[in-house]
Amino acid sequence: MKSAVIVVLFRLFTIGVCVDGNEESVSVAEGDSVTLKSGVTEIQTDDEIEWWFSGSKIATISRDDGGISLSVKPDGSFRDRLQLNNQTGDLKISNIRDSGDYKLLITSPRDPPPEMTFTVKVVSADEVKSLSVMEGDSVTLQTGLTDIQRDAVIRWRFGQQKSLVAEINRKAGIFKTFDGPDERFRDRLHLNNQTGSLNITNITITDSGLYEVEISSTSSKHTIHKTFTVTVSDAVKSVSVKKGETVTLPITEIQKDDLILWMFGEIVLAEIHKAAQRFYISDVPDKSFRNRLQLDHQTGSLIITDTRTTDPEEYYLKISSSRHIINRRIIVTVGPGLSPGAIAGIVVGVLLGAAAVVVVGVIYYRRRSSRNVNRQNPTSNGAQDPGDHVNEGTELTNAS
After folding, report:
1. Nearest residue to 169 via CA among 228, 215, 227
2. Please, what sign has the CA dihedral across residues 143, 148, 152, 158?
3. Rg (CA), the chain
4. Helix axes 340-376, 390-399, angle to 10 degrees
5. Residue 146 has pLDDT above 50, yes or no
6. The CATH number of 128-235 is which of 3.40.50.2300, 2.60.40.10, 3.30.160.70, 2.60.40.3250?
7. Of 85, 221, 270, 399, which sits most exposed with the smallest number of CB within 10 A?
8. Which UniProt keywords are present, listed alphabetically (predicted)?
9. Average pLDDT in the 350-355 region?
C-alpha cells in the first residue's frame, strides 16, 4: 500500500495531508472552503454518487435525470454551503466549520470504486479575511504555503466572474500572471515563486473585490479554497504640520493577529503585535525621537509629538499576518514654526490694537455724553454751550 505525505504551513498550524488507500485526511482553517473529489471524470448513466457526514446523507447526484439533489441536515448546519459538480460529483463545502468524516459512496452497474473517507479537521481561525487598504498601497495575499510541491496547481481568481489573474502549475511549466478584466492589473501582479502568494502593487479603487486562490495537487483528492475581500479607499497619505505640532499617522483597520511595524528606511520606530500584547517603541540609534513617540494600542496609529524640521519625511507602515501583507508609504512635511521674535511681535500688535480700541471707545463715550447734555439743557437763545465742540454744535443745529 502506497502512501504520500504533503506538509504545508498555514497560519500557526501545521497541515498534514495523508493519503492512504481509501482514506484521506486534511486540515482546513475555519471559514475557508474545501472541495472533496470523487475521482470520477464523468458520471455515467445509472451512476449515483452520495456524500455522507456523521451518518447523515448530505448530497446526492445521479445521471438518470441530470438533476442535483442536496439534502440539508435537520439542524441546518450545511444550509447554502454545499455545491456539487454536475459532471464529476465533487463536493465543495464553503465556509467550513464542521470537523469529522465525510464519506463518498458511488453506486454503478459497472465496477463501483470502494467507499472513500475524508477526515476533515477544522482548525481555529481568529482573523477576519477582509482587509481595507489605501489607494497606492502594496498588498500581498498569502497562500499559507511554505513551499510549492512539484505537482501543485495554484490559481488566483478575481471578482464575481472569477477571472483568472495568476496561475502556477509546476508540472506543466506554467508560472504567469494575467492582466485581468479590462486589463486593470497590467504589470501590477507578481507571484512568489516559493509560496505562490500574490502581490498587488500600487493598488487602485477598481481593484476592490473578491480574490480567491485554489490550491490542489494531483496526489491528493481535495482542493483548498481561500477567499479575500479587499476594499480600497481613496485617502490622503501625506500630511503637513508646523514645527512643534503633534501628528498622528493612522491605520484604517487592525486585526487580532496583525504584526505592525512603523519604520523609516530600515529602522524600526515602533512595533505592535496585538495577539502577543507586545507594544514596543524604539529610541532609534541617534535618539532623535526620544520621548516623542506614542502608540495607540487600539488602532495601532503612531503619534509623533514636538515635530521637528529634521525629522524624516518618509515613513513606512508594514502590516503582516498569515493572510496578507500591506506596505504603505506616508509623507510628513514639517514646516517652520513661528520664531520667538515673531511671537513677541504678534503679542505687541494685539496689545496695541486693544489699547487703540479702548481709546476710541473713551472718546466716543465722552462725545455722546456731551451731546446728550446739550439736548437735555439747551440755552434760551439757542446759543451753544461754551463747552461744546464746533462739530457737535453743528450736529445739534441740524437736528433742531
Report:
1. 215
2. positive
3. 37
4. 50
5. yes
6. 2.60.40.10
7. 399
8. Membrane, Signal, Transmembrane, Transmembrane helix
9. 53
